[in-house]
Amino acid sequence: MAAAEPTNGHNPEPMTPTEIRSEFSHHDPTIARINNGSFGCCPATIIAAQQRHQLLLLRQPDFYFFKTLKPAILHTRRLIQTLINADHVDEVSIVDNATTAAAIVLQHTTWSFFSSNFQPGDAALILHYAYGAVKKSVQAYISRAGGHVIEVHLPFPVKSSSEIVHEFQEALKTGKANGRRIRLAVIDHITSMPCVVIPVKELVKLCRKEGVDRIFIDGAHAIGNLNINVKDIGADFYASNMHKWLFCPPSAAFLYCKMSTEFSDLHHPVVSHEYGNGLAVESAWIGTRDYSAQLVLPEVMQFVSRFEGGLEGIMKRNHERVVEMAELLVEAWGTELGAPPEMCASLAMVGLPTCLGVESDSDALKLRKHLREVFKVEVPIYYRAPSPSPMEGEFDPITGYVRISYQVYNVVDDYFRLRDAVNTLVETRFTCALLP
């Protein structure tokens, strides 16, 4: 894990609770915001740093683009290189978001089908719980190129990482049936909905053992949430958003590409003047636009250094507190966690009382809207369809789960408000069927 940027040779003053409130005072004070996972957060000092970059651009655009932008993006790349333990800065490209990173990898894979390096019917493997935009990207690129897409159906609720490893092994066997080759595996580090930390290192080893050509880890939620060591994980590609858990403004992300001649012809989907100069340089210039969100990582590292233990300390406390809040809700509602604490990071799935009658994705969205508008609580809700063959002893299974997050701005009253809102719904015999 990288050290923070130096602050004139002095240790920064620790962040006080009052200063934390001030840094996030632009948040709507009427809302219990326990959904950092969707869009992240950005402190006031980082917003100010972004605005300084924006004003520098507007003040003297030519000087900014020719003299300031490239060195600033290179600085960001070097910081990410250290954070993720990459061997070389040229392995790190800065892009808009993890979806853009996925498009870069999938575009490269598509060309392998068109050039006959891969054959029609060769497969790409993706988790059933993969992020929706990435699943659509796999369909758009791989299926249209003649590839076969295999979804790994993972259990939920999940009891241990061994369940995930087992299902992945079975999917690899299925994918290789009838002589088919698996050319690409797309594996989430933390799935989005439902959110579960995936044992990526173990799955990468399985892929290598079974001859999967390329492995892409979609770590959209990971940086600032988990320690990332790309050499230890061993995948060919790794992407993560810096605006979700690393305090950057939206949108900023990185794509790691392991140094290899095989991947020397990766390109950004937006072709501009830097085409052919390597992915990292191409990504640093895709035309006139606002790059400021990608340039404030030095200020972010100063910000996190003001917390005990720096970024490591933030991640540890966020995990401990989200587990504590999740267990509080489980006890209040008489339900269960969707995954054991060690598979939760800074997000956790908590079962809702079954009497609320969450019976579809539509019900989940309507209940989320109801909590926002009536109780001023912002929290995603996941619908888990009942299994056609329920487990022995499973009666009245939980079908609705909230996904709670914990970030430095959260306080226990946010979770009390969610707890009390759901208890009120239960006491008044509310069901989703009552919602328009």
Looking at this protein, list some descriptive labels.
alpha/beta
Q: Can you tell me about this structure?
A:
The chain has 15 helices and 12 strands. Helix 3 packs antiparallel against helix 4, helix 5 (98-114) packs parallel to helix 6 (132-143) and helix 13 runs parallel beside helix 15 (412-427). The protein is globular. Mean pLDDT is 93; it is low at 1-9. Strand 5 (182-188), helix 8 (200-209) and strand 6 (214-218) form a beta-alpha-beta unit. It has 436 residues and is of the alpha/beta class. The strands form 3 sheets. It has a 7-stranded mixed sheet, with helices on both faces. A 3-stranded antiparallel sheet has the order 9-12-11. Helices cover 42% and strands 12% of the residues. It has helices at 17-23, 36-39, 44-59, 61-84, 98-114, 132-143, 161-175, 200-209, 230-233, 242-245, 279-284, 297-304, 310-333, 361-375, 412-427, and strands spanning 32-33, 92-95, 123-127, 148-152, 182-188, 214-218, 237-241, 253-257, 347-351, 377-378, 381-383, 400-405.
Choose one word for the global shape.
globular
Instruction: Summarize the main sheet.
Output: 7 strands, mixed
Please write the string of helix (H) and strand (E) elements: HEHHHEHEHEHEHEHEHEHHHEHEEEH
Uncertain ranges: 1-9
| Spatial order of strands in the largest sheet | 2-8-7-6-5-3-4
Distance between the termini: 49 Å
Mean pLDDT: 93
Number of helices: 15
Proportion of β residues?
Answer: 5-15%
Compute the CA-based radius of gyration.
22 Å
Structural class: alpha/beta
Q: Give the fraction of residues assigned to helices.
A: 40-55%
The number of strands is: 12
